[in-house]
Amino acid sequence: xxxxxxxxxxxxxxxxxxxxxxxxxxxxxxxxxxxxxxxxxxxxxxxxxxxxxxxxxxxxxxxxxxxxxxxxxxxxxxxxxxxxxxxxxxxxxxxxxxxx
Length: 100
Ligand SMILES: [Zn+2]
Prior knowledge:
Layout: H1 2-21, H2 26-35, H3 42-54, E1 58-65, E2 68-75, H4 77-98
Antiparallel strand pairs: 1-2
Helix pairs in contact: 1-4, 2-3
Bound molecules: zinc ion (ZN).
């Protein structure tokens, strides 16, 4: 629980990054983050997607997939801006924490 809280920022950046490349949806991002070593359940993923949307970093589009409504998310200009700022901060962090 504490670890998840600690890594929440990383998870949010992962989501924003992928939403900048293509439309994403919850189950797909759960799998993607699993590949990166993060265990994120649907009960964690969906609230993160909703808050990124309500904060204006993602926009949502609903599509009927085989009778089920799936929500696709794509980055917004505001999201692009924060992703850009995150990149600079990640760079800074790598310089200090990894390359020192
Ligand atoms: Zn990723």
